[in-house]
Amino acid sequence: MSKTTQATTTSAAARLHRREMLLGTGVALAGLGLGRRVLAQGRGTMNLSFWTFENPQQRPWIHKRVRMFTERNPNVRVDFQYFPFGDLGQKLSVGFATGTAPDGFVSQDWFMPTWLSRELLAPLDVRRLGYDSKEAFNTDFPAAFVEGATQGGEVYGYPLWFYGFCNYLNTKHFREVGLDAERDWPQDWEQLGEVARRLTIRDGERFQRQGFKFAMHAAQWTMIHLNAIVHQCGAKWFDDQGRCVINSEAGQRAMTIRASIARQYGAEDPADTIATNPLPMMDWLRERCSMFLNHPIPPAAIISQNPRMQEEGYYRPVQYPGVQRGRGYSTTYGFNLVVNARAPRERQEMLQEMYRFMMSDPADAWADAAPFPLARKSGWADNPAVQAFPHVNEIIKARDEGVLLPRSTVYNELADQVHRGVQRIMLNRADIKETLDAIAAAVDRASERARRG
Amino acid sequence: MSQASLSQATAPAGQQEIPARRRTRLGLRYGRRLQLIGFAFVLPTLLFFAAFKFGPMLWAVELSFTSFDMVSTPDWVGLENYERLAEDPVFRASLVNTFVYIAGSTVLIALVGLGLALAINTSVPGARACMAVMFLTNLMPIIAVTLVWRFLLHPFGLVNQLLAPFGVGRMDWLTDEDLAMPAIIAVTAWRFAPYFMVVYLAGLLAIPRDYYEAAEIDGAGAIRRFLHITLPLLMPTIFFVVVVSALLSSRIFLMPYIMTGGGPGDATRVLSMLIYETGFSYMKMGEAAAISVVLFAIMLVFTVLQMRIFMRNERGLA
């Protein structure tokens, strides 16, 4: 054999060898993967995926209960993922679009119409969730919240947390200006303006302390703060035909109240408020603002920003101011545990088992995530540990008497339009009527598009 | 006579078999084989671009003629999305904002970048060190930079504090409808002008010193030297900077998104933000794709126009 031929043969052999190696490796890997799957199926392992939002108290509790469930059910594995609060909706949308949505997830209640209108959620079996009947299920939760989780008589969401907003007062600031927070807490919007004016400290154009402030940083917060005033004024977001009617006289009155704290009483600086804070309640926690409408604030959040405030306890939540004195109520919102309609049936059933387990110890939920109240009425509110929490009944009252955000498939469009409108009114002194007309027109256009598909 | 037979006829006796050996088993000539091998090397890249760059672009164009909520199957709606855009005041406002932003930031970047390059291109001690420091603005993550500027432009931030001794009162840079867009344009120029300064500097260094020396001997002052030597010879670089910075500006998203969220009202909402909101917040992917196509068309027209001006200028210089 010539040298050249020998070299060619060796080279060919080497190439063949490499191919064989690659082929062999590929087959081995495929076999390994298949084998593991077969083995897993043989053991009956079920892999579930579950998404929720980040919250320093709520997310760890959910994660803990999921872990406990998997420990009790070794054949179940849960791929647990969480996302920033504001991102979860978008992540889910993309997940549904790409076929990568989780089997189960926590849904903010204002997203329920979006999922339900697209038939993305599976109906839940209330017996599997631990209730004898749908009636028993319905009576265990606030009616308005259950209404958002049901459609056509079917239950699509297992209500988790549900809370209203309270007016958080800095009682030390009240004392400094000769007010008693227990007696002088503002019970209507005019009183709020007057008290806020007294609490405000200004140095020329600069606010050293705002007596009160509305959130200006995000559409969702704009809606939450404004929605209660809209209801209190007797205004509606939509009429029975689905037309946006926020530009009604009652709507204008609501927006005038919203604007009055800055415009009439000079007790807040919207341009300062919009600017920089990572947490909406930060100015209140840092005592740069004396009153702020907020969801229940966990002690841990106060300790992290202002340990002295927590230690000396110079704060308290009170009810929202009302248009009618003493009859204030806030916006409420909550979260549902839901199941992806596209998940295989056995996973849907297992998820319901998991949800039942998660919610089987409401006192544990309170212990870990206080003071966020649960949506369910039974099994926790009269617990001594719950009742020992300072001002817990104010928090529960705000939940029970609150009104929900509008449920609409164009909710995001509405919230964005209202947010932009509030910015124009508060920052650029735009005319309230004209701005509300523009909001209503834009929302009607969005509704029309949604109807046409 | 064919080229092959000609080469056989003229080749020395010992080399007559070469053409035969240069044919592959498939009967391909050596040159063609080389071409195919070269093509095979670039094929993965071509496939990558086709799949991940041009594919999505074409799909976006197709989507713009559909109604698609990211969940259901896309429905063909023809030109309806474009008709809706034409009626939508938010789209019109965003379109105007995008033009204002492109024009403002392109002009500012081009001028500031040129000014910085001219300043650096002197024999002043420490000028090159200054260039390095200024270029640092491009190395910092844009999110961090934007957040810092948000603090600086706060009503009681550092910018207003620095302006106060000059009798400038409170300026609500990011919350006043008239100031928000100029503020974002200024931050954009701060961020990108040093990058283009380096491009200008390369152009300046390429101009032969002889021209300046000859002009100086003829009595030309600094301004005349700049107008009659620097500017004409730097024109290709200026056009490059204008084209690239305009394209960069047309795609801007993070700065207005983080600094103002598109507000106050719609004062700083640009098309890229509207695409994001329409697609991911309102789940109207068809409409978002239509806005993308409009943005693409603007960029295309803008680029073609500038290229034509550039070519004409080049010919003029030649």
Structural commentary:
The complex is a heterodimer of chains A (453) and B (318). Chain A has 453 residues and is α/β, with parallel strands linked by helices. Chain A folds into two domains: 12-164 and 332-404, 3-Layer(aba) Sandwich (D-Maltodextrin-Binding Protein, domain 2), CATH 3.40.190; 166-331 and 407-452, Periplasmic binding protein-like II (D-Maltodextrin-Binding Protein, domain 2). Chain A has helices at 3-43, 58-72, 88-98, 112-117, 134-139, 143-149, 171-176, 181-184, 189-199, 219-232, 249-263, 270-275, 282-285, 299-305, 307-312, 345-358, 362-369, 384-387, 392-401, 411-428, 432-452, and strands spanning 46-53, 76-83, 104-108, 150-151, 154-155, 158-164, 166-170, 201-203, 206-209, 291-294, 315-318, 331-339, 403-404. In chain A, the strands form four sheets. In chain A, strands 1, 2, 3, 6, 12 and 13 form a six-stranded mixed beta sheet that branches. In chain A, strands 10-7-11 form a three-stranded antiparallel beta sheet. In chain A, strand 1 (46-53), helix 2 (58-72) and strand 2 (76-83) form a beta-alpha-beta unit. The longest helix of chain A is centred in the N-terminal third of the chain and has 41 residues, at 3-43. Chain B folds into two domains: 16-63; 80-317, MetI-like (MetI-like fold, Orthogonal Bundle), CATH 1.10.3720. Helices cover 71% and strands 1% of the residues of chain B. Chain B has a two-stranded antiparallel sheet with strand order 1-2. In chain B, helix 9 (180-205) packs across helix 11. Chains A and B meet through helix 3, helix 12, helix 20 and helix 21 of A and helix 13 of B.
